[in-house]
Amino acid sequence: MKSEATKQKFIQLRAEGLSYAKIGEQLNISKGTCSKWEGQLTDEIAELLS
Q: For residues 21 and 47, what is the distance between their CA atoms, to the nearest angstrom?
């Protein structure tokens, strides 16, 4: 289980437009985890974009 801090960093990096590959490299998570989190955290990512 990844920490809440890791998820928050994912949200930030995704909002910045980084790819799953780059995010996975930085946070040491799989592209599958990125995809799953994208679905779960869409609203949080969108908030940073507005």
A: 22
Tokens 């994912």 locate to 10
- pLDDT tens-digit series, residues 11-45: 999 999 999 999 999 999 999 999 999 999 999 99
pTM listed for this prediction: 0.91
**Separation of alpha carbons 46 and 32, rounded Å:** 20
Residue 6 · residue 27 · CB < 8 Å? yes
**Torsion angle, CA of 13/37/34/28, rounded to 10 degrees?**
80
